[in-house]
Each structure stands twice: as structure tokens, then as C-alpha cells.
């Protein structure tokens, strides 16, 4: 089969690799029907995730059809159409028993495209298939479902829920790529009074406005002035960091009000300064997190019921075999206007 293989920083190739095999009785093998590229994949290619070794197949977001299962798999069978979660869960360790699947100590957590081969391939092995796949109803398209593999639960859990978004809040989202847009979309479920989107790219700010932000501001302008004008000088109740750079994190800490919450979602490859000399008197809560995907069944129900419209997030579509071109388009959003790309089996 063919797969997208990481060759080291800034090196990737669509090349022939061995077909995946059942290794553990809990494994499933899927034919990948639709996959996508994550900003985290770009961080890997940038050298920000050193645990990923050369030779690894990338990708942790896919919808596929089960073609084989191990002897211990009970909930899916060949022929089933499933969502492959970005998080794998053993179901037995302390963290899994608490619903903190991202911290799994039994061989799971974020392993796909990280510690084991991922899903940007024609076929993929999914460990712990009973807890790490979700059978899909007929009414959900592949494109809608693939957004539930990572970006929707990540933004909802690590941004909206960790940030404790409440009715009437002023919410600022710094970074309106796919994760930031999903944060806006799911924050709206809690009826905030205002959602302010901050980004450098006009195309992404316009996407944020279309998806629910009522104020947009360029990062190079004065986001603090805009936020203060909306909040009578207080600052935002919740600020979500959805970029993963020192500058964006530090901006978030300037936009939050005393007693407010900063929810960091972005993947950071470099240290960011924590200005405790300013923050220590302001009762600010800062949260971090890796998605656990405990919310995936709830989000799946909302998408199925038409309560979450994810249609505007996918902007570009490619055959899976054109993944090298898709990476090029996805990595240059300021030039291409790309938000999320869908890669489908020919």
C-alpha cells in the first residue's frame, strides 16, 4: 500500500510501505476512506515533536471501513464504517477509568501518527479498537465525521470546557485555523455574549465571522483595544490560544480579565514566557491539555442531529494519492485560504 511517511524534519514522502497487520487481539484494520491533515502534522514536520521517528506514517484523523479485526474485538466487525479517534484508549489504566484517555498509561493516548503508524495511508491499524473507534450512522458524511476525530473534541474539551465558557461571557479565540474555528463553533453552544476572533490572515478572520464570531481583529492591529471596548475595559472572560507560539500565548495573557481563564489548545514547540510579574495579582487561571475524546459521542449526536454545522471548515478536497499537494496547500493558508483539507480514497 501507499502511505505518507515522515523522513525527518521537513521531509515527507508518499511511498510504498507494507500493509498493516493485526498485532494485538484488540486491533482493527481499516481501509481509509477519508483522512485529513492536522496542524500537529506540520509541527511534526517542523521538528517540534521529537518523539516521532523517521519512517513513521503520519496522520491521526480518519474515517474508514473495517476490513479485519483481532480475536478480542467485540464492537466492530468487517464492513462497518467507523470514525478513527485521534486518541487510543486501553480502558484499564487509572487515567482511562477516569475518562482521561489522552493520558492513557496502558499503551494508548495520542499514539497514531506519533508513536505508532497513523492513518494517512490506504490502510491503517487501529489499536484498542473497541474503545478507539466509533461506528457511524448513515446520515453523517465522511467529511463531517472526520472533523470529530480531533479538532471538534479538542476545541470543545481543551478550549471551551477547560475555559469554562458560560452564558454571557466574552470569549476571545486567538488563531482561527481549524482548531480555533471549532472553538468558536462549540463555544456558541454556551451562549456567550461576544466571540472575538484574532488572526493574521484575512481569509481566516472572514471564516471566523461566518462561523459565529461577532468581532474580528488582525493580530498586528490592537486586539487589546477591541476587547477592552467590548468589555468596558475589563478584558475577556475566556481566551483560547489556538496557535502554539510564544507570541500568541503571551497575547492571550494580556487579553484576559482579572479572574478570567486562559485555555491553551495550541501545540507549542518553543518555550513561552509566563509573565507572573503581571499575572500573580489577577487571579487568572491557565489550563493546558491534550484532548481525551470523552466528548466524541456527544458531539457525534449533535452533528447527527444537525446542531453543529461543520460544513464551512473543509475548504479543499483531494484524492488521497494527491496528499503531497494537499500538504503544500494546507501549509500555506495565507496564500491558499486553506482551513481543513479532505483526502478521499479514489
From TrEMBL:
<comment type="similarity">
    <text>Belongs to the zinc-containing alcohol dehydrogenase family.</text>
</comment>
<protein>
    <submittedName>
        <fullName>Alcohol dehydrogenase</fullName>
        <ecNumber>1.1.1.-</ecNumber>
    </submittedName>
</protein>
<dbReference type="GO" id="GO:0016491">
    <property type="term" value="F:oxidoreductase activity"/>
</dbReference>
<dbReference type="Pfam" id="PF00107">
    <property type="entry name" value="ADH_zinc_N"/>
</dbReference>
<dbReference type="InterPro" id="IPR002328">
    <property type="entry name" value="ADH_Zn_CS"/>
</dbReference>
<dbReference type="InterPro" id="IPR011032">
    <property type="entry name" value="GroES-like_sf"/>
</dbReference>
<dbReference type="InterPro" id="IPR020843">
    <property type="entry name" value="ER"/>
</dbReference>
<dbReference type="InterPro" id="IPR036291">
    <property type="entry name" value="NAD(P)-bd_dom_sf"/>
</dbReference>
<feature type="domain" description="Enoyl reductase (ER)">
    <location>
        <begin position="7"/>
        <end position="343"/>
    </location>
</feature>
<keyword id="KW-0479">Metal-binding</keyword>
<dbReference type="Pfam" id="PF08240">
    <property type="entry name" value="ADH_N"/>
</dbReference>
<dbReference type="InterPro" id="IPR013154">
    <property type="entry name" value="ADH-like_N"/>
</dbReference>
<keyword id="KW-0560">Oxidoreductase</keyword>
<dbReference type="InterPro" id="IPR013149">
    <property type="entry name" value="ADH-like_C"/>
</dbReference>
<keyword id="KW-0862">Zinc</keyword>
